[in-house]
Amino acid sequence: MPWFQALEQFSRQHPQIVLRLNLRDPEGTDTVLIYRGIASSLSRPTPADPHVPVVGNGAEFVSLDLLPAPYNPSRILQANLTWEQTQQLLHQAGIPS
Known about the structure:
By secondary structure, this protein is an alpha+beta fold. The protein has 2 helices and 5 strands; from the N terminus they run αβββββα. The chain has helices at residues 3-13, 83-92; strands at 17-25, 28-35, 38-41, 60-68, 78-81. A 5-stranded antiparallel beta sheet has the order 3-2-1-4-5. A hairpin with a 2-residue loop joins strand 2 and strand 3 (38-41). The protein is globular, with a radius of gyration of 12 Å. The termini are close together. The model has no long low-confidence stretch (mean pLDDT 94).
């Protein structure tokens, strides 16, 4: 499963958590919120169709923040998780990464 889909699956399983993903791709950097399996870019247009991926195949994971739902950017549960830490989180949730 692609890493971004693994994060979407994690968010569906944990609706009490909002994921704030920082990434880099050929267009530059982006911040994406993922909540209940739905992703939305904070700095770029988000497709209206939820089946159109927000994150392209060339995207590179930078860091991940976990925030409580409902989204409040000043309340952070865990900040700046690395890919290795995120893989551990996914593994604990039974999600292949």
